[in-house]
Design goal:
By secondary structure, the chain is an all-alpha fold. It is built from four helices and no strands. Helix 3 packs antiparallel against helix 4.
Length: 95
């Protein structure tokens, strides 16, 4: 993940460990998405039975909406008052 090093002079020191953990988690998501996107979806779906295909589609949609939720928070938008909340609730009704 191409980010600049965290500079503890730019934020309160008491949140440094939280930011490091968050940065590591985002790096893990980035790595996983890079691997997933390196294989054409049609090729991936051929290896799965219909139920697994549905689960992958549902998990992909839920993950995308969850990442958008986090993005909204970083932009100062309350995601609880955004339509993405309804999408996340709708997708959890199927699991």
């Amino acid at each position: 993940m191409a980010t600049k090093d965290l500079n503890s002079e730019e934020y309160p020191t008491e949140i440094h460990e939280y930011l490091l953990t968050f940065e590591k988690a985002v790096g893990g998501v980035d790595e996983m998405l890079t691997k997933l996107m390196s294989v054409p979806k049609s090729e991936l779906l051929q290896k799965l039975d219909p139920e697994e295909q549905a689960k992958l589609d549902l998990a992909s949609a839920y993950t995308l909406n969850s990442l958008f939720w986090v993005y909204l928070v970083t932009q100062g938008v309350n995601p609880k008052e955004h339509p993405v909340k309804d999408e996340l609730v709708r997708k959890t009704d199927f699991t």
